[in-house]
Amino acid sequence: MPNQPYQFHFFLHCGHLIEERLRTKLTPLEVMPRQARVLDALGRMGQASQVQLADEFGLSAASMSTMTARLLTAGLIERRVDEHELRSNVLKLSKHGKGLLTQIYEVWRELDQEIYEAIGSENAMQLARITHELRNTFGGFTPGENSSNSEEQAHS
User: Fold this and answer.
1) Among the listed residues 108, 82, 80, 78, the one whose alpha carbon sits nearest the alpha carbon of residue 95
2) Is residue 143 within 8 Å of residue 56, measured between CB atoms?
3) Does residue 53 contact residue 41 with C-beta atoms inside 8 Å?
4) Could you give the dihedral angle defined by the CA atoms of residues 137, 139, 144 and 146, in that order, rounded to the nearest 10 degrees?
């Protein structure tokens, strides 16, 4: 085998660097990158159970329980009885969570802009298209995008 770096390491390293930039930008909002993604999914879905969210993100119920407990404590989501299944609860964005989601989208736009400035808009658009295709090929998807509760929003 030739003495060259494995190409996927560049993806891993870039992903790590981008997530660290995102974490830094989200710090003033007091939300972590993965929490922001859960808020985004709930914004798209309207409401969801913890089990639905865990399935959408490919997480264990225990991991999602920890995440939602933190979001509930922060006042970013609310829990209420499911109108269709009175023995179950659903989660939805609180008013504060909806406002924060607007700020999260602004941070995401800023990071997109940094990428455009770093490699040029044509390369950035091509990179987004290719990584989107790779993600889908590997079985990934945008959490909440195909949910039956999904509101008509186009955030990914």
Assistant:
1) 78
2) yes
3) yes
4) 70
Neighbours of 55 (CB within 10 A): 15
Nearest CA to 18 out of 98, 101, 115, 87 is that of: 115
Cα distances (Å, whole numbers) of residue 98 to 46, 95, 105: 11, 5, 11
CB 13 within 8 A of CB 6: no
Radius of gyration of the chain measured on its C-alpha atoms: 17
Domains in the chain, CATH or no CATH each: 8-137 (1.10.10.10)
Task: Divide the 156 residues of the chain into consecutive groups of 10 and give the mean pLDDT of each group.
Answer: 78 95 97 96 93 91 93 96 82 97 98 97 97 94 69 39
For the entire predicted model, the pTM comes to: 0.85
End-to-end Cα, the chain, rounded Å: 38
